């Protein structure tokens, strides 16, 4: 698991970059796993000095001193301790919205950007774009269910091994529409990680459309389906002007 390192003491803090600045005070320095370094003094929410996602971070931690050197492009942040109050390292995860606990281990589950993560084990269930995690749990494994819109609305386990979304989409939509270029059925396939409605005559016909995150509500003038998505109505063919 990732960890956050914390250093406290009377420090001299130097920033070199767009403008140079040296400060000294009793501060708390936070070094994150992505090499973001934040130097906090007693006031306000904003660090007095910081470097976000540094290209490199060097930490020296001796018995009576510490020092940090972070670089990002032509910017450099240096922290040198004059007197050490304390230092520590704590396990850290991404924070997210609580969505229950793991059925086997009781490990708390949180929804972060694009994933459900088990806090203690670090196990990650990656979510398809636009997925909503539900309060209901999977009848097979007990993990939360998610709602995903791909032509229709599907409620499946967040563990794609347990109940693959692709199987549901195929069962519902495979062969449902015809290729506008050759008339062959459009098959539901996964190619290069994307869920597509692709022509059955592939590779002779290479027509394929990425399935939008939305439900089919109508037919487009071109003959393909119209999807209602969070960004409005659109044809399966993203280049089609029709709705
Ligand atoms: Zn399941
Ligand atoms: Zn075709
Ligand atoms: Zn169209």
UniProtKB/TrEMBL annotation:
MF (Gene Ontology): isomerase activity
Key words of the record: Isomerase
Entry annotated with the keyword Isomerase: yes
Keyword Magnesium: no
Region (Disordered): 89-110
Sequence ranges assigned to domain Endonuclease NucS N-terminal PH-like in this UniProt record: 3-92
UniProt xrefs under Gene3D superfamilies: 2.70.180.20
Protein's name according to its UniProt entry: Topoisomerase DNA binding C4 zinc finger
Organism per entry: Haloferax denitrificans ATCC 35960
């Amino acid at each position: 698991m990732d960890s956050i390192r914390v250093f406290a003491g009377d420090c001299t803090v130097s920033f070199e970059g767009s403008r140079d600045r040296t400060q000294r005070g009793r501060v708390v320095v936070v070094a994150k796993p992505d090499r973001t370094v934040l130097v906090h003094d007693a006031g306000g929410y904003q660090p007095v000095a910081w470097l976000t996602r540094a290209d490199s971070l060097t930490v020296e931690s001796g018995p009576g001193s510490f020092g940090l050197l972070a670089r990002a492009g032509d910017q450099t942040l240096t922290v040198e301790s004059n007197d050490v109050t304390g230092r520590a390292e704590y396990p850290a995860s991404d924070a997210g919205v609580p969505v229950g606990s793991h059925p086997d281990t009781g490990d708390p589950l949180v929804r972060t950007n694009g994933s459900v993560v088990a806090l203690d084990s670090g196990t990650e269930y990656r979510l398809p774009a636009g997925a909503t995690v539900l309060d209901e749990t999977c009848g097979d494994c007990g993990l939360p269910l998610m709602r995903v819109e791909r032509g229709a609305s599907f409620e499946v386990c967040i563990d794609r091994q347990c109940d693959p979304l692709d199987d549901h989409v195929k069962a519902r939509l495979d062969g449902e529409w015809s290729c506008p270029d050759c008339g062959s059925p459009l098959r539901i396939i996964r190619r290069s990680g994307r869920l597509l409605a692709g022509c059955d005559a592939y590779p002779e016909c290479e027509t394929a459309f990425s399935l939008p995150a939305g439900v089919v509500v109508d037919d487009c003038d071109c003959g393909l389906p119209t999807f209602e998505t969070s960004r409005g109505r659109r044809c399966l063919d993203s280049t089609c002007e029709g709705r």
